[in-house]
Amino acid sequence: MYLSANRAADAAKGVPRPAAGPAVAGNVLVLGLVSLVTDVSAEMVTAVLPLYLVVGLGMSPLAFGALDGLYQGASAFLRLAGGHLADRTERHKLVAGTGYALSAACKLALLAVSTPWAMGAVLAADRAGKGLRTAPRDALISLSAPPEGQGRAFGVHRAMDTAGALLGPLVAFGVLWAAHDAYEAVFTVSFCVAAFAVLLLALFVRDVRARPDRTPRPQRAAPARPGLGPVLRDRGVRRLALAAALFGVFTVGDSFVYLLLQRRLELPAAAFPLLPVATAAGFLLLAVPLGRLADRAGRGPVFLAGHAALAVAYLLLLSPLGGAAPAVLVLLLLSAFYAATDGVLMAAAGPLLPVRLRASGMAVVQTAQALARFAGALLFGAGWTYAGPGTALAGAAIGLTLSLAAAGILGKGALR
Question: Which residue numbers delimit the Major facilitator superfamily (MFS) profile domain (predicted)?
Answer without folding.
Answer: 27-416
